[in-house]
Amino acid sequence: MPEHSLHSAQTDNTGMGKLQINVTSSLGLIPIQDAAITISYKGVPDVTVEKLTTNSSGQSETIDLPAPPLEYSMTPVEQQPYSEYNIQVEAPGYEPILVSGTEILPDVTAVQPIRLNPLEIATQQEDTIVIPDHTLFGEYPPKIPEDEIKPMDESGEIVLSRVVIPEYVVVHDGVPGDSTASNYYVKYRDYIKNVVSSEIYATWPESAIYANTLVIMSFTLNRVYTEW
User: How many CB atoms are located within 10 Å of the residue 70 CB?
Assistant: First the structure.
């Protein structure tokens, strides 16, 4: 991130956003009560902003946090439109975790789910999850162009007889031609939510959010429907 953008994200916080954290066990998604949460700025990790504790549902209270002005996320600008925070979570019997880069936009509530590994399956060291720059702000390689019409050969592709809403989708962690990249099974709803949150801003008008979500769902189901 350019230095001026990082400085702007930390100092030009004339808006306020909200953050709520949900903590569950990675085994069975059981809510974790009395988890200790420490929040700090990503750019100033040694300075604590807030300390929270989860309730019996594994949820923290919803808190207000400084965020950049609303207009930064409504039109393309050089300034970073969200502030970034580190979230450290500890709970007895679980491996501690650090989530770095939780994004806070003004006038909306960010919900950060966090799953803790029980010590019996943990690696005995703190796990760290780094959230990358939002795709609308960070610099990423261009999407790989695809043909609008793909030929059907005898390599195994089939077209299903009807549209199917899957429970899981397979996410290939690499370019399509990289056979060494891992495949991950992700719940369809979680996949859609993650793509939506990384490709649009929650500050946009509701109609724009609906439209973009439908596009993402249509694209994903097209891949399932054609098995490409």
Answer: 17
CB 37 within 8 A of CB 91: no
Partnered with residue 101 across adjacent β-strands are none
Two tokens at 61? 């209270």
CA dihedral sign, ordered 63, 103, 192, 179: negative
CA–CA separation, 83 and 92 (whole Å): 30
Q: Is 0.90 surpassed by the pTM of this model?
A: no
Q: Which amino acid is at 31?
A: P
Find the mean pLDDT for residues 153-179. Answer: 77
d(CA 197, CA 123): 29
Structure tokens at 155: 């390599």
Residue 155 has pLDDT above 70, yes or no: no
- Homologous superfamily of domain range 3-130: Immunoglobulins (2.60.40.10)
The residues pairing with 64 across neighbouring beta strands, listed in sequence order, are 18
Lateral strand order in the sheet of 36-41: 48-53, 36-41, 83-90, 97-104, 127-130
> Cα 93 vs. chain centroid, distance in angstroms?
26
Intervals of CATH 2.60.40.10 along the chain: 3-130
Mean pLDDT of the chain: 87
Nearest to 88, CA basis, from 119, 60, 118: 60
Distance CA 138, CA 105 (A): 16
